[in-house]
Amino acid sequence: MHPDFLDILCCPETGESLTLDATRVRSSGLIVSGTLRSESGREYPIVRGVPRFVSAEHYASSFGYEWSRWPRVQFEDANVGRPMAGHTTRMWERITGVAGSLTGQTIVDFGCGPGRFLDVVQRRGGCAVGIDLSLAVESARRNFPDDPDVLIVQGDLMRPPFKPGVFDGGFTIGVLHHTPDPQAGLTAMARTIKPAGWGACCVYPKDDFYDFASVRRFRRLHQMLKPIVGYRFALAYSYFAAYALAPALRLMKEEGLHDLVRAIERNWLVSLRLKDARWRVLDVFDAITPHVATTHVEAEVAHWMREAGLVSVHRTAWCPTSAAGVKLAQSEVLPLAA
User: Which of 16, 203, 274, 313 could in theory staple to 38 by disulfide, Cβ–Cβ 3.0 to 4.6 A?
Assistant: First the structure.
């Protein structure tokens, strides 16, 4: 971490400000190792440039594995001239509704993974802050080596180590449905956004791919086999689905067997139609390995956002369960009735 980010951090237990004791600092100013201390004596280590506010990945361990294996597949610079070029940027824009420069703004990503959306923020001139519960933070830090405008922290999304109202905007994309309490995670994110700042959220919609009977069945099968074979079954199936099953189903569709393909995909075999096989491998693995994966409806997400203090809440262009809003300004808070 760069010491300039110290002012936005706090103890996730008490909310107290933190002091920094750096033990190893690079010439760029990045603190590689050290300790953050609260006024009441709690200590949080900085390990390999990442402040650690949790000691375990808990329910998010599959993502630590996933993003260590495929740390840059979804980054724009890894897709130049390839079928998925521009996809990450378009996805971010359609979910957040934000266009143009972010120069002078500090934006937070709740559940940053290896940082593909942080990369979008950075390329638009913003300071990018990412938090993740999993060891994906290791890949994220490596993806932004010695960058003073990017902060990666390992922490609990429900109890983030950020002071209230420190970010100009915040987003969480494809993450909260993997937590025990998505609404609590959104509320925690909204608390860190400045009055009149923006917030955006996207979770799995009901009756879509991640809600298919095939996906739920393979997810259960992976959880049954994981104590015996680890991730080997999920990996083998993901490569089979990407390089053999998807092309075979595409040929079946070309032969006019649309209904049969739809039935196979929804009920029996997990498959994706993404144009790049690397993305198909990653996304099939991502679908069948999480310990927690819930699906939601548009009204539910809108309710979370309003309860979190966001106004002008509206569905955005990505899917039924992507939405954005504006943090309630202090002047808009209604006084309590006498």
Answer: 16
